Structures are given as C-alpha cells and as structure tokens.
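For reproducibility, we list the full input for the zinc ion complex.
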Amino acid sequence: MADATFESLHEDDDGPPAVPLATPPVFVWPPQPAGLVKFLFGYPGYIWPLNILYMGMAIATWFWLTPDLATMKTFQWDWIAVIWGRNLGLTFLVFGGLHFRFYIAKAQGRRFMMNRREPTRNHRRFLFGNQVRENMFWTAGSAVAIWSAYEVVTLWAFANGYIPMLSWEAHPVWFVVLFLAIPMIRDAHFYFVHRLLHHPMFYKRFHALHHKNVDIGPWSGMSMHPVEHVLYFSGILLHWVMLSHPLHAIFHVQQTGLSPALGHVGFHRAKGKGGGEFPIGKRYYHYLHHRFFECNYGGDGTVPLDKWFGTFHDGTPESHEIMRGRRKQAHGTEAGAA
Ligand SMILES: [Zn+2]
Ligand SMILES: [Zn+2]
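The corresponding predicted structure, in tokenized form, follows.
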C-alpha cells in the first residue's frame, strides 16, 4: 500500500475521527486517578456502553443458553449442538444485524464511514467472487466451529472438575474484578497473536486472508484462516490455569467471537434515530491497521502495547512519518506487507 493514501484518507468524509487517538489512562505513569475513574465509569467509557452489553449477553448466555454442568460431564452431541447453534445464532444476529444496518439499509449513508469503498465488492480474488460471501463463509464455518470447540472442551473440563472453579459466594470481589478485566486481557493477548501473524513466516500463509479486507465491514472481523482462528481464540486457555468460573470463560470466548463485528464496522460514529450521534468505540484504531498494516496490532489499545513496542499509529501525519521510517528500516522499502 502506497503511503500517499494517508493524505487522501477521509477526503470526502464530513466527520473524520478525532486524532490523535488517545491512550486510555489505565496503564500509564504517573497514574491519572481522575482520568481512570472517568474512563472506567464514564460514558462512553470502558464499561458503558459496549462492554456492559457484552457482559449482559454473556450472563444471559450462561443462565439461559448453556446446558447444566452435570449434563456437560460427558461429550454428547445434543448439548454440543446447543452450544454451536447458539453461537451461530448470535453470530448472525450481531454480524448480520450490523451489516444490515450499515450496508443494506444504509441507515446513515456514508456519514462517518471510514472506508473509501463499501466492503461489499465483487472481485475474483474473493471466494465465490464476493467479499461479503467469502467473509461469511470463514465466519459461520471456521470461526463458529473453532470458538464452539474451545468452549465445549472448557465447559466439559469445568463440569468434571479438571479446571478449578471460582465460587461467587466465596470470592465475590475477585469474581467481579476478573470479569471486568477480561476485555483488557483479550486486548493484550490479541496484540501478541497478531504480531506473530505478521511475521513473514505466517503472514502470507495465514493472516493475508484477513487482510484481503482493506475496506472493512462487520463480516470482515472474523474472516480469518482456520489457523488464525485457533490462535485467536486460544485466550480462553487462560481459564485452564487461572481460577475462574465458567461464566468468565463464556464471556471471554463470546466477546472474542462477537466483538470483531463492531471492531470492523467501517464507521467511527453511529447516528441515532433522533439525529443524535455517538462514537462507537475506538474503531479508527484497527481501521488504520487495515490501511497501513504495520501499526496498531492491539485490538483497541486499552493495554497500550503498541505504544510500548513502538507500533502505535495515532492517526496524525507525524505518527505516519514515524511508521514509514520504521517500515523503511525493516524492509529497505516503503512498501507495506500487502
Ligand atoms: Zn482486522
Ligand atoms: Zn493484521
């Protein structure tokens, strides 16, 4: 990808994202207690509105859409089908719902769209000759199967006591703290897996598939090679070694499976019915990764690993120059990994 495209970003966009992208005041020195409280509990913030939605969905899933632990002691196709079926259903609800709103109903037209083109291209480089169809294929096929497999084996291990279970009654504070920390744990895990996938040994073979999406839409999110799915969902293995509850594991793996829909929505603000506007998380962060490849490997930078490892692109021309310099040093060229 030629760097000249940076200047042409959002040339026809009437509401570009605010830059520089800020680093959340969680892992910063010196500490910023007031900023931290505002980030954690303010609106829009860490908990409200997005994580509370994912948390609520996980709680509902655990209480109403997950078989009893006693049932899950032995592998049986009936309960495994329930897990797979609800994951597939949630996938169509979230990915399909967002795709419908933004790209079929076109609820806000191109307003606040970051893409140059709509992520719905017909081109022979895509499976079935169409970007959305290829993305749906990898998501509904490979992603949901691998997500469900991790979840089934983990729930089976909890049911049999192979994994120690954290009790809500005995440790309510740790229970809540761990629950709140899971999105950050995911962000850090994603950074390392993602950097590994950009290593020349893995990029072309596995991760290039995800990067066929330069203009991104919800279905781009989980459009990955099955090997990438195995690595991407591996964060759930944490619950095999750290004291937690099946609810934590469900929240962890479900958010891993569903949040890329909004993460790749291609818009940085949503327009409400009454004409109100609201930001939809830090969508520009990962969008810049899809445009320029060698920056912003983290999910949203809540754990600022990109900053610590010098791979942060904050959306400004200065930041872009720094990335170009890094790229030149690494490749002896200005060309990106694409
Ligand atoms: Zn992506
Ligand atoms: Zn990548």
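The CA atoms of residues 176 and 228 lie 30 Å apart. The beta strands are 269-271, 277-279. Both points were considered when choosing residues for closer inspection.
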